[in-house]
Design a protein that fits this description.
The structure is a homodimer.
Chain A: E1 2-8, H1 10-13, H2 21-31, E2 35-42, H3 46-59, E3 62-66, H4 77-84, E4 89-91, H5 93-107, H6 113-116, E5 120-122, E6 126-128, E7 137-142, E8 145-150, H7 154-172, E9 177-186, H8 190-196, H9 198-203, E10 209-215, E11 218-227, H10 230-247, E12 252-255, H11 261-272, E13 276-280, H12 286-292, E14 301-307, H13 310-315, H14 321-327, H15 332-346, E15 350-356, E16 371-377, E17 382-388, H16 393-414
Parallel strand pairs in A: 1-2, 1-3, 3-8, 13-14, 13-15
Antiparallel strand pairs in A: 4-5, 6-7, 7-8, 9-11, 9-12, 10-11, 15-16, 16-17
Helix pairs in contact in A: 2-7, 3-4, 11-16
């Protein structure tokens, strides 16, 4: 069973927004055994949408369409559906009742004319209730192919997927079992890993596919397979995972589906009953945000401080002014002192600190763009490390965050 | 001149990564006058890639392909190019020299066999030097259509676009001028805005297209047009922008190309010679990260504190323990006290504070999931506001950050 995701909207094609919906939909479909054949982003243009519908119908079984359902004039999806299905828009009382209810409850204003048009839907469509918005989802079939239309607003689309689309697909089809397992590694490049696991890769059963995913100084190794009986698929995968784990033991962090690296660190800290605090300069809050974006961070993260200005490093963190004058604010000594001070300030077991220059221009110090110092304080002591992270601001921050997580992880494992 | 972007990689189709490259490429192409007709994400599969090449060639002039160029076995792009162009891979000394140089300089290890294969390129291809990686870019032509292949690693792709692809396209074609202008608004829904500007929209010249982009409680209004003479296009657009600005004056923030909202706030603060500090609880660093992700934040942002645990609100920020006991940690009183305290701690003119419950479960208080209090301290005094932000963690945090920026913006404008 193959799906084709079509996202409609000029905002994607001019680069104004990044399409994050497709990744969510792809993951959700894989989870119930449906492979995604292609994702296409097309213009708010009837002919182009019709062309993409025809292409998708010819090559896939399920066509998932997002976007183009809003109350405003730039949205053309519904009329295009009517043309493709030789259908017409009819008034649907159920949809109007739902829209009226939402307005009464949340907007607390009378219904606008443009919102009433949302109750016009193709006559052949099965309506999918949108719990989180006014534009209904739609389900239409033609020649054994299923077309599903959802609004592009992410949380509305997610609600429709969860409560309407996925349950219906699971009921209608007898779907296989797709399994992806991704090992997180660090400290070794893609080519070097490939060379090391060459024999393993050559001997992999043909049903299992291996992929390498490098990102910000790390490589993820993904094994993918598909089958009918879950237990058999799991067992076949398990054999290969055990082999691979041994081969990459020294650079292995964990599995991606066990959570992000910061979640794995959090679980370790909770298991040890330890706490963490953070002092950030060049990473500017990106490090703490990585921890707090996962639920459960309050179980180990006491707090963090972004001391962006030099004077706040002195006045708030209590770093010795003489130390900064002697070594400069971007130095190993200051990174280490920041870690020690923030650990004291929040009274935690571990602390991480960053200071550096992410660019594009030089800041409060003469340090070259890309210079990063990471300080770590542990129950046993403290240390700082020096790195050169290149000259792209976003990449310097991304790599510094990843490196800080790795160093913290190593320290926690020592204890 | 139309382009089709093809991204190759199973990792996109299984939802493991979000395709951010296409947004970057689309923006860059629009900037030099090339429209993007479609973006397609396809599997690491030769037949599928060939099919997408044929489709793209039939409907577009420039086909930009990313991904599938790494040194490992899951990458199939080069052999597919050979098949499509009836070509063969030949050894290229220039590429090998470049790869060898990169290894010597950065990896400091001998070249691996798999990296040597990167010097094998289709004989008909013009090589585009990849300054930031080992996989070369390639430029091939067929029947007047241009195919460009780049690696999928974002900073490598960006370097190739900037130094190789865009200059060559500008030189080869006489391109038109594409102009997008996006007004940022807040405080009014999409439908209500559409109703208010209906006459304006109906009277828009046919060359100008209007789009509504709602996101996290805000609506962006985009006007797009294309023409040959830059001055004429700018003038036609300016007339409409002035009309629209007046119509939405009370909800208008600024223009998107002047920078993100937080940059606009930063510019205001710098112009006034004022400083900012932040205390975050439920937003967990997302607010400060919004400011520091833009260069120049050090001109007004002194520092910030994420006080995730209740005890750090007391011990680090100095919020009165009795106040927390009386009103609970998620309350207007505590939000206001956090703002006042962090302002004092970093000695700034303005301060923002957030406390709430982003979910999924209840935290250190009994507050319902979605409850958010935002405190603001200014040179004149302090205040706190209460919001219910729904029950999706990511959305609660996103809306709270946007709302905090709006409230701060309003306070700054008062002074």
């Amino acid at each position: 069973m193959k799906a084709h995701i079509i996202t409609i909207g000029d905002e994607i094609l001019i680069g104004q927004i990044v399409d994050t919906n497709s990744a969510y939909i792809s993951t959700a479909l894989n989870d119930i055994g449906i492979s995604v054949y292609q994702i296409s982003s097309v213009q708010d243009d009837k002919d182009h949408i019709l062309e993409s519908f025809a292409f998708a119908k010819a090559t896939s079984d399920i066509i998932i369409v997002t976007g183009g359902l809003g109350p405003t004039k730039d949205d053309v999806t519904k009329s295009t559906f009517c043309e493709f299905f030789d259908d017409e828009l009819v008034f649907n009382q159920e949809v109007l009742d739902h829209v009226t209810h939402l307005f009464k409850k949340y907007v607390k204003k009378p219904l606008l004319e443009s919102n009433k048009t949302q109750a016009l839907v193709p006559s052949k469509a099965t309506i999918l209730t949108n719990r989180f918005g006014t534009a209904p989802g739609m389900w239409m079939e033609q020649d054994g192919k299923i077309f599903i239309s959802m609004p592009g607003v992410p949380h509305e689309m997610k609600g429709l997927m969860e409560y309407e689309v996925l349950p219906r697909l699971k009921e209608q089809f007898n779907l296989p079992y797709i399994l992806h397992k991704t090992l997180l590694t660090y400290g070794m490049g893609e080519s070097a890993i490939a060379q090391r696991i060459e024999t393993f890769e050559n001997e992999l059963p043909s049903a299992i596919k291996l992929a390498y995913l490098p990102s910000f100084g790390r490589v993820r190794l993904r094994l993918s397979t598909i089958g009918i009986i879950k237990e058999e698929v799991d067992a076949i995968m398990q054999v290969q995972l055990q082999k691979l784990e041994i081969l990459v033991e020294d650079i292995f962090i964990g599995y991606e589906d066990e959570g992000a690296f910061e979640s794995l660190i959090g679980q370790l800290l909770i298991a040890q009953g330890k706490t963490l605090s953070i002092a950030e300069s060049c990473t500017g809050g990106s490090l703490v945000q990585r921890f707090t974006s996962n639920p459960g961070a309050s179980g180990y993260l006491v707090g963090s401080t972004v001391t962006y200005a030099t004077r706040s490093k002195i006045e708030v963190l209590g770093v010795d002014e003489a130390l900064i004058e002697k070594h400069s604010v971007v130095s190993a000594e200051v990174a280490e002192a920041m870690a020690v001070q923030v650990k004291k300030m929040y009274n935690t077991d571990y602390a991480i600190a960053t200071t550096g220059n992410a660019g594009p221009s030089k800041g409060d110090s003469d340090a070259a763009v890309g210079t990063v110092y990471i300080g770590i304080a542990t129950p046993e002591g403290s240390i700082a490390h020096h790195f050169m992270m290149g000259n792209h601001r976003e990449r310097v921050i991304g790599k510094a965050v990843n490196k800080a997580l790795e160093l913290l992880h190593e320290e926690i494992l020592k204890n």
